[in-house]
Each structure stands twice: as structure tokens, then as C-alpha cells.
């Protein structure tokens, strides 16, 4: 478990650094695309929605959610990513939606820093990367 302190501006400066953001998204995409077909299926994307805590962040759910409701939430998230309704999420759709989500989280946080606890196994945690990005900015 790592605890990061993050606010809206931390996330926005990460998202707005086009090269850095694209690199992170590319890495996440490759690690999620288990069968290497260049698109994310429903089950592949589900690993990301779980690690990003989209469900909690978007819907404010912190109590255990019944499996059936959770499945519905995951479907909703998938449909948001899958802009052209092709049944799979390509890299551009993935990047656009991750950006939308991070900007929405940033707007929700505003300029009030919050502590966020992240699991170590969140190998593709964009929020952690945003926090690291902020921490190392001064050393460039
Ligand atoms: Ca795939």
C-alpha cells in the first residue's frame, strides 16, 4: 500500500504533458492487451477499471457492491470507452476516455489535496503516476 497526496492540478499537469501521458497510456494499454490483438476486450478492460477504482471514483461506492450491480457498472464503463460501439476498445478510445476520467477526477478534487491509498498491485495506476510526475518535476 502506498499513500499519495494528490490534488486536481497534479492530475491536470500529468494529463497535459502530452508525451508523458501518451507513454503511460501506451504502457498501460500493452499490459492490458493480454492477447496482443491491438484492442481491449471487455474482460481486458475490466482489469483496468478495477485498478483505477473507476467505480469508486465515479459512483462514490465504498460499500461492497453486489456482484450483479458491479457487472452492470463495468458494462457502463466499457460502453463509455467503446465510443464507436465496435465491441472492443482501441488505443485511441482508451487514451481519450482515460483523459476524460482523469480530468473529471481532477475537477472533482479541485485544489484541495487529498490523500489517496493505492494498492501496490495497481501496476497501471495513473493516479500514482500523476503523483510521481509531480514529485519529480523539480528534479528535471
Ligand atoms: Ca486484446
From TrEMBL:
GO terms for molecular function: calcium ion binding. Residues 20-55, 69-104 form the EF-hand domain. It comes from the Eukaryota. Keywords: Calcium. Pfam families: EF-hand_7. This is Calcium-binding EF-hand family protein. The lineage of its organism: Eukaryota, Viridiplantae, Streptophyta, Embryophyta, Tracheophyta.
